[in-house]
Design goal:
The protein has about 425 residues and is α/β, with parallel strands linked by helices. Helices cover about 35% and strands about 15% of the residues. Helix 6 crosses helix 11. The protein is globular and about 75 Å long.
Length: about 425
């Protein structure tokens, strides 16, 4: 078998992330993803280029988006010979796409790839209840006027009440926020700790904008020039005024709109390649995608819904013979501040390491100054499927522009799963 090749991260492009029902209220997954890919095409002169594979997905999608990856690649101006594959693993979608494509590059199956994701809450699919849907099926079968009228016998306007996409886990009936409230209680994460982490995320993100870090990462779209959730002027005092968002009755709720990610629209993309392919086209190699790991836990029977990345990271480090001491940067997706804090606490807890991770000694403490140094999802927002690509692109640029050598990416997902990756500096 041939030796595995390095997987180069050439660069990334994304549209600004916008709070739901704001800048992209009239857009959908296809237009947003096409814009993000178009930015990547323009940035790296890929017009008409046949890419080995484009893999993308959306968590909330219409049936009209059934071939989203393929259609978006055509809209973006890539060669029609570029295949498009749809993939979905909730919030880990675009990072999982990158790992899958990276494996194909490493083995020589393809030489280039684009991993991407898009999600819109503003244009999320709304369906009717079963009763009205069944009437529509019967109507399509009706042949005479009498048969068509008969379909609506007993009809009432209540049947037209739309059913919005649910945020509840099918196996528990609890929303992700409610699950995270349980995690906060289990790990004794205070409201004050959560607010402090959220504040730091906004401050780091605002500083990154002031420094121009995002200037070559973001493609303006639909009149939106920058992420509209970043709050440079927020404070602990302002955050303290927010009421609990998920536990509104017990008096013990700690998760608020301030320390939870807002519903967000957006899309992001990352260009991966073999070193040879990139250099033949005069393209940069910012970093290498070196390893990944996907894991799941038994969240329906007591394990924290968003704790699976603790397992994935542990297994990934075990496979690579690395420890936290070998990691210079930690990019941990902030679905909720409590989720990040619970993850960090679990990694240093002896019992959790022994009983869940199978480690005799804890993974240990992480220097807070190594975590999300340019801010993360609490500040930028979280368009579910796009977040992994945002983080991967940011991480590659961060490693390339500093003396840092290695970064760990961790993304929690719905359904009790987690996706992690290791990224290493190229030069």
């Amino acid at each position: 078998m041939a030796e595995l090749r390095k997987v180069a991260i050439v660069g990334s492009a994304r549209i600004p992330f916008a709070r739901a029902y704001t800048g992209y209220a009239e857009e959908g997954n296809l237009s947003m993803l096409g814009a993000a890919l178009g930015g990547l095409v323009d940035k790296y002169n890929l017009k008409g280029e046949a890419i080995g594979e484009m893999m993308a997905g959306a968590v909330l999608s219409h049936s009209r988006d059934f071939n989203l990856a393929r259609e978006a690649s055509l809209d973006a101006g890539l060669s029609p010979r570029t295949p498009g594959t749809n993939v979905q693993i909730a919030c880990g979608t675009s990072l999982q796409a990158a790992l899958s494509l990276g494996a194909k590059i490493a083995t020589g199956e393809i030489d280039s790839a684009i991993a991407a994701g898009s999600d819109t809450v503003s244009d999320s699919p709304v369906v009717f209840g079963d009763k009205f849907q069944h009437r529509m099926i019967e109507l399509s079968r009706a042949r005479t006027t009498g048969e068509k009228f008969k379909v609506f016998k007993g009809f009432n306007l209540g049947e037209l009440t739309p059913i919005a996409p649910s945020t509840q886990e099918p196996r528990t009936g609890l929303s992700m926020g409610q699950h995270c409230e349980l995690m906060a209680r289990q790990w004794e994460i205070s409201r004050e700790e959560q607010d402090a982490l959220a504040l730091k995320s906004h401050q780091n993100a605002a500083r990154a904008y002031d420094e121009g870090f995002h200037d070559d990462l973001i493609v303006p779209f639909a009149g939106v020039l920058k992420d509209n959730n970043v709050r440079a002027d927020t404070s602990l005092e302002k955050m303290a005024t927010m009421k609990p968002a998920f536990d509104k009755s017990s008096g013990k709720g700690t998760l608020t709109a301030a320390n939870s990610t807002p519903l967000t629209d957006g899309a992001a993309s990352v260009l991966l390649a073999s070193e040879e392919w990139a250099r033949a086209r005069g393209l940069p190699v910012l970093a290498y995608l070196t390893l990944g790991q996907v894991a799941a836990n038994d969240f329906a029977h007591g394990e924290g819904l968003l704790m699976a990345p603790t397992i994935a990271a542990s297994e990934m480090l075990r496979r690579s013979n690395l420890s936290f001491d070998d990691i210079d940067l930690f990019e941990i997706h902030e679905a909720f501040a409590a989720q990040v804090l619970a993850t960090l606490k679990a990694w240093r807890d002896p019992d959790y390491n022994r009983n869940v991770l199978g480690r005799e000694t804890p993974l240990g403490e992480i220097d807070p100054d190594k975590i999300n140094t340019k801010g993360s999802s609490l500040a930028y927002g979280h368009p579910f499927a796009a977040t992994g690509a945002r983080i991967l692109g940011l991480t590659a640029k961060l490693l390339n522009s500093t003396e840092k050598q290695r970064a760990l990416i961790s993304v929690c997902t719905a359904g009790g799963m987690g996706v992690t990756a290791l990224v290493e500096r190229a030069a």
